[in-house]
Amino acid sequence: MERSLTLIALFAALIAALGLIPKFTLGFGVPITAQTLGVMLCGTVLGARRGGLAVLLFIALVALGLPLLAGGRGGLGVFATPSTGFLIGWPVGAFVCGLIMERSRRLPVAWAAGIASVLGGIVVIYVFGVAGLMRALDKSALESLGLVTAFIPGDLIKAVLAGLITAGLARARPASLLSRG
Amino acid sequence: MISLTSPVETRAHGWPAGAKLAALCAATVVLFATNALLWHGVFLALTLGLYALPGALFLRTGIVRLRPLWIFAAVILLWHLVTADLRAGLVIVMRMMTAVALANLVTMTTRLSDMMGVVRWLLTPFRAFGLRTDLVELAMALVIRFTPVLADKGRMLALAWRARAVRRLGWRIITPFAVLAIDDAEHVADALRARGGL
């Protein structure tokens, strides 16, 4: 009980902290914000329920007015912007990530986490995000998807990294990998 | 932890947070109910007028917080310029700006503690289904306390990386960073248990 609660809270804090540390760059110089990577890790490390709750907790604190999103953004206004669908999709994405992780125990951790991150951390989140864009901008699904295709390669890289990082955590702190516990 | 509440004290700071949130919901419904360009111009002007009431500093802060929207505005206007339907584009952009500005206004005039009060009130019915709302509040407090702590540890990791490596900060820093978060979580869990548990 205590462990579940503190892990949920600390992973929510981890997502926030990932938005605060200096941006890091990938091999070919593309700067990425690590917050969605944090969302994927919530699912792959904590599992479906706890991972989803951790991201939900983070989103709730953003809504309450804490500047926890990358670039110091936050508050209710964030939920009125056209890209808010992505944010709403985060907890569901983490939940699906964790669900896939829990159901694929036969696969090696890195592969399972990578696949879970692609399906939960990209597909699910983009479904929500594109739906939000359609509603806010009055555009069709394909047009809305067109606006965000530029971000898909970066997100695919993040999914691969989420797989590698989860495997690293499984070696470093095997007892804390609740998604496989 | 810094919050987005405005340091400029306004009269709205004293209003009940629940009422402000309900008003925001109503205003957003109205915004989406009409497509008339004229009305959206009026709504946007009224909203900016609200920002101007507490003074220039408040207005300037509010406008700075709308800045992330310019990219959406540019894409939409360009799009509608191409499809020769600029009027519809203007409506979408103005509706978006008014909606975000009004929501920001609630955030800027409501203290974190008042917002927490609304959350507590909203969660109360779920107690009947076994939700422990005290745990939700404890978790929120833990996140607020540990975000700066973790961010500091992340900065130390980044400094250590720079001291040792020639290359720029890479993704490999995330694994030790997450390990630090996990270790902190285990320690806090032990501390909670040692104090009688939850």
TrEMBL record, chain A:
**Topology class, membrane:** Multi-pass membrane protein
Keyword field: Cell membrane, Membrane, Transmembrane, Transmembrane helix, Transport
Q: What is its main location?
A: membrane
Transmembrane regions? 29-46, 53-70, 76-97, 109-133, 145-170
Top-level taxon in the UniProt lineage? Bacteria
Which compartments does it reside in? Cell membrane
| Family, per entry | Belongs to the BioY family.
- Name-wise, this protein is Biotin transporter
Q: Which organism is it from?
A: Sulfitobacter porphyrae
